[in-house]
Write a structure and sequence with these properties.
eight-stranded mixed sheet; two-stranded antiparallel ribbon; Rossmann fold; single chain; globular; 237 residues; 7 helices
Length: 237
C-alpha cells in the first residue's frame, strides 16, 4: 500500500499520524501540489490513497482558483471516482469539499486554538470520528470553512462553525481541525503569526501543553481506525 501525502508548504509533517502509517506498514510519500503537477508526479495507478494536509491558501474559490489548485481538485476528483481512500485536514478538507462539488466561504469568525467539537448522531456513530468523543477538544486554525455538497454526511460542529467534519461514502473524510498537530508545529505557527497578540499566543501555548497529550493519543487512535476501515486492515494488537 502506498499513500500520497499532499502538503501545501515545505516542511509540513503528518505529526502523530506518521506513526500509524509506520506501524501498519503503509508507505507514504510527501508531495507538494503547489510546486508540482499532481497528474504528472502522482499518477493514480501508483497510489492507493491520499492524506491532504493544511495550508494558508484559505478561501480560494471561483475565479480566484490558481492553476495548481485546479489541478489538485481534478486529481482529487479522480481519486474519488476511483473510490480510493482520502483523509483531508483543514485546507485539504476544503479542497476535498470543492472536488466533491461544494464550496468554501469565510466563517463568521476565525478559530485559532483549542475548541471542543460537538458530534452529532452521525459523528457519534461513525467508526472513525466517534473516537473524538473521548477527547473532543481539538486544535483549529482557519478563517474559512466548507459548504457541503449533497451526498456527504456532516458529523461535527463547534459553537462558531457548523461544518467541522464530513464523510463521503465510507472511506473519504474531511476534517476542518488538525489531528496532525505537534507541540513543535503549534510553537512554530504561533511564532509566525502576525494577527495574534502575545497574550493570545501565550494562552494558546499554555492550553496546548495541557490538552495536547490526550488530543494526540486520540488523533492516533482515530487515524488508525481510518486506516483499518479505508485500507481493510485488521486491528493491530
Amino acid at each position: 500500500m502506498r499513500v500520497a501525502v499532499l502538503r501545501h508548504f515545505e516542511g509540513d509533517q503528518l505529526g502523530p499520524l506518521a506513526g500509524v502509517f509506520q506501524k501498519r506498514g503503509l508507505q507514504y510519500t510527501y508531495v507538494n501540489p503547489v510546486q508540482s503537477n499532481l497528474m504528472e508526479s502522482c499518477p493514480l495507478d501508483k497510489y492507493d490513497g491520499a492524506v491532504m494536509l493544511g495550508g494558508s491558501y484559505e478561501g480560494l474559490d471561483g475565479d480566484a482558483t490558481p492553476e495548481w489548485l485546479a489541478q489538485e481538485i481534478a486529481w482529487v476528483q479522480e481519486m474519488v471516482d476511483a473510490e480510493k481512500p482520502i483523509f483531508a485536514i483543514c485546507f485539504g478538507a476544503q479542497v476535498l469539499c470543492r472536488a466533491l462539488g461544494g464550496s468554501v466561504i469565510r466563517c463568521p469568525e476565525k478559530e485559532v486554538g483549542w475548541y471542543p467539537l460537538l458530534l452529532n448522531e452521525a459523528g457519534a456513530q461513525d467508526p472513525v470520528l466517534s473516537y473524538l468523543m473521548e477527547a473532543p477538544m481539538q486544535f483549529h486554525w482557519h478563517g474559512f470553512g466548507c459548504q457541503y455538497p449533497p451526498g456527504v454526511v456532516s458529523m461535527a460542529k463547534t459553537k462558531s462553525w457548523q461544518n467541522q467534519a464530513f464523510r463521503y461514502r465510507s472511506n473519504v473524510y474531511g476534517l476542518q481541525f488538525h489531528p496532525d498537530m505537534t507541540l513543535e508545529k503549534i510553537r512554530l505557527w504561533l511564532g509566525q503569526s502576525k494577527s495574534l497578540t502575545d497574550v493570545e499566543k501565550k494562552a494558546i501555548l499554555e492550553q496546548s501543553l495541557r490538552v495536547f497529550p490526550e488530543s494526540s493519543d486520540t488523533a492516533r487512535a482515530m487515524f488508525s481506525r481510518f486506516c483499518e476501515v479505508a485500507f481493510a486492515y485488521l486491528p493491530l494488537s
